[in-house]
Amino acid sequence: FNFFFFSFSQYPFELGLVAAFVFSTLVCLSRLYTGMHTVLDVIGGALISAVLLMLLYPAWDTIDHLLLTSPFCPLFSIVVPLVLCYNYPKLDYYSPTRGDTTTILGAAAGATVGFWLNNQYAAPAYTSKSFQPGFPLVTSAMVLMLARFFIGILVVLLTRWVMKSMVLGALGYWYKFPIRDLPARRRLEVEVPYKFVTYSSVGFTATVIVPLLHKLLGLM
């Protein structure tokens, strides 16, 4: 995935290649450190990823078009990652990797649905207009960038806090455990839905709600 992402980046190929290699290496080492995978697992996963990259690269434009236009995209983007999270490899002891994977897939699912929705309603793109006329261009651009950043991060963090509290509260009521009970929150039937719903909401907010708020505040 990292190599696939950097193949579409605007950075020089060599820089993207190095960044993808470093990031992938760190992920592999973290999997070994947490005991989730063996060295053979990591090597096998890298080979599978390389094969998938070669097979899917020519069809990426088609896949991208389907994700933005197909009426089944929201259902597919939510159901498939959620099923994968529930069928994550099980260990005899707790490992944070399942929760981390659920967080990543949840955020990606929410963002994918957000991109699809933006495409359906032709959401306006960001422009480089000055935030305050009369200021130098660099100053105006910096003020605009900082305003977008802090408003966006505030809304994202607020979404995370609200959704996490609501989902954990509902699951705690359903499964009869206190919210602060850490072992209970690590159970499969609790960890997966609470993290998936929380971070899919974060992904959706970042791609839909934040741009709409920026437009409302005149920061587009």
Automatic annotation (TrEMBL):
SUPFAM superfamilies in the record: Acid phosphatase/Vanadium-dependent haloperoxidase
Coiled coil regions in record: none
Gene name in the database record: Sgpp2
Single GO biological process annotation from the record: sphingosine metabolic process
Protein name, entry field: SGPP2 phosphatase
Keywords: Membrane, Transmembrane, Transmembrane helix
GO cellular component, one term: endoplasmic reticulum membrane
Domain Phosphatidic acid phosphatase type 2/haloperoxidase residue range list: 14-60
GO molecular function, one term: sphingosine-1-phosphate phosphatase activity
Annotated transmembrane regions: 12-32, 39-60, 66-88, 100-117, 137-158, 196-214
